[in-house]
Amino acid sequence: MTLTTGTTPAATAAATPAAGVMRLIVDGALGALSTMPTPLRAVVTGPAGSGRSTALRALRDELSATGRTVTTLSASPTGVLPSGTTLLIDDAESLDDGTLARIEQLVTDPGTGIVIAYSAHPMPPRLARIIREVEHAAPPVLLGEITALQVVESTRVPALCADAIVRFTGALTWLTLAAVDAHDPGSCDNDPAHRELAASLRGQVMHRLDRVDADVRSAVEALCLFPPSHIAAMAPPAAGWDAAIRAGWAAGLLTRSGLAPATVQTAVRHDLPVHRLAELLALDADVTAADPGRHRGPDVAAPLGERLLVHGDQVRETDPERAMALYGEALARGVDPQQCGLRFGVAAVAAGDLDAAAATFDRITATEGHPLRGDAAEASLAVWAARGALRAGVAALDREDETATSVVSAARRALARTGAGLAPAPHLPRGGTDTLAIASTAVTAGVTASLGADLDGVVDDLTLASELYSASRCDFPLVEPPAVVAAAAALASGRVAVAADTIAAALESHQCGPWARPRLQLWQVWVTLMQSRPDEARDLLARVRAENTTLRPRDRLIAAACDTGLARRYGDVSALASAFRHAERVLLRQRFDLFQHPFLAELMLAGHRVDASADVDRHFAREIAALAALGDPPLWSVPLHWAGLQRGIIRNRPDLVVPHAHALLAAAAHHPFAERLAAAGRVWTDVLAASVDPARVEAAAHALAHDGLAWDGARLAAHGAARTPDRAAASQLLACARDLHPRGQSSVDAPTPASAPRVEPGALSEREVEVARLVMQGKTYVEIGQTLFISPRTAEHHIARIRRRLDATSRSDLIAKLRDELDPGRGRDGSS
After folding, report:
1. For the segment 460-501, what is each residue's pLDDT rounded down to a tens digit?
2. What is the C-alpha to C-alpha distance for residues 615 and 699, in angstroms, rounded to an integer?
3. What is the pLDDT of residues 546-581, one digit of tens each?
4. In b/e form, how buried is each residue of 422-438, taking b as 16+ CB within 10 angstroms?
5. Cα separation of 446 and 466, whole Å?
6. Read out DSSP for 216-261?
7. Burial of 707 (0-12, 13-18, 19+ CB in 10 A)
């Protein structure tokens, strides 16, 4: 028999990636059938969702296209087929015995063409005889699994992504197709393991699980929850484990070997009602999940509660709300409250419920002799930090006069004390040998060294500590994830690429669990902004807000600083004023600590740009005093002193510049980054005094850009251009400023999108539109030049050309005509 594959409806241009994969599956099935002799006698088998019906429809179309007569059971009620006819039967396992008897009669005629598609379970005896008879003619066409190569060949999914998808779907056809369709290439960099993609399939898995028989569902749930050694000890389903596994495979929920794919396991563990989970755990009659070697004691409720605790621990990293419910159920099943309390509080932090977490930790710390009292006190530090009151939490812990009991405890306290501006405890407990102990020791050593004068290798040590902590898989709440501390230290050393890599690695490894993810994402936004990639920073910030409808107070402050930073560098004065007003509301509920100094610096400079700096200046003065009390550690003090110097430049106040310039010079002996900033500060001071050496200015500007301060470098070059009488030098420095801080289409000073003016094509040039917008804001020639990195004379020429084009007779007439030109829908009275 000859079939022309690749021309069926299933093989036409795929509307979705999944359709492309299904086309390949169908083409493979048709290719196998095309090699079989005539009359065509074959079986096509596979579990639900494997493409059996699609392949049968494609075969019908192929046979019809080649002039063959095709029929179905409903079209042949007498059980007699005309010569040369091929009978196609789908879902044969669902047919009644009478219908199967008719098919059995047809099969006995070797001249009858017949193709049967069926699932392997259930298998009525008569159907088994029919299948055996048909398979004498040709081997079966087996469907049900997809390879990564098939996904790559038929879609644009990269090979690494295809491998990951096939792993977590167990290669089950329907589940792999769903994953391929849901795959978003844009999220792969932030989620290379595709955890979010796998999680998005949970609803489809549970929907399919709801449609199978109760016994099969129970078997699949048990196979998802327990290892094989437990399954052997459990009471089997009514039909036995073998039959249940075959049924689970036929339903598309298990592999042929009886294993539940990772996605199915995740769905069951996260979405199974807690009471149902408790019922299944109670079926495990001989062993417990907490200790497979220990048999159940006389108190039946206690082991069940312990197993609920274990399941809570297993899902806490991905679903903290469910973990809280499991801990509550464990408590109801008789587990000692001391075992549940800290777990519940940790899950509450991860879920973003700071009030529930704080109440839980308070109850533990108020209980004298509680074995986890120290852990609860240390977890409370993270809650205080998230609320913007880290120093208050550290002071309360210090009043307790308790010392760290382990290297893990010491690391938690070292992070908190460093953030609060206090040196870590000098005497540390003896170390351990597990991953968390080794990582904690590295964290303590790194933050302790960061407060000293010898900074050689400190950033590298903190980066390594972050990597080790990720490997520990610990989700205990900390003041900051170690990756944030390492990234902050890298930025404070001018090593922006190191900061970006550290944060990216921490996000990929899910460092510290769910509570840390928004914090890490926001730091990724900040580092991206420092890399002068505004569009990417905006996209990342929008993603954070989409994923987290309610941010914690500390995270809201970082988000507000990112908004302000984008507006200060790439927006107009009105956008900056709006962003800063929002940030001021956040500031009312926050106090800064050492790890938040980058955001304090940003908000302080923005406040001076919009003449609203009084409140943020108080925060700045408090942090400068805290650094002085700590001995002005070069690593952490330099960024804030640089911001102080910038403040003096903005205000044109040499008296504000001098103390911070001296601090940078003092730190320069210990910190190369401070040395470079001090050199740039000297050049800037000369520029403000109208002593402009173009070569020195350009070199200093490029050095700042190299250290992640491209915006500052561009401003330095622009200031130099504005203060040199040499036109050639001014042009050179303005070109340098534009190179360091390009203003593309997305970076133009413009109102928010909702009110963005619409420009008629060809009316004004792109540069004239930029200048016109600034004129409408009331900016002078000098201010326009500083904003666009052009000379005031060039700004004046642009405005003169705009006036001639619009035939404006005065400044007020110009502004009115610009409103008409840039926003025709708005009347001259400002109404629309």
Report:
1. 999 999 999 999 999 999 999 999 999 999 999 999 999 999
2. 35
3. 888 789 999 999 999 999 999 999 888 888 999 999
4. bebeeebbeeeeeebbb
5. 10
6. HHHHHHHHHHS-HHHHHHSPPPTT-HHHHHHHHHHTTSS-TTSPPP
7. buried
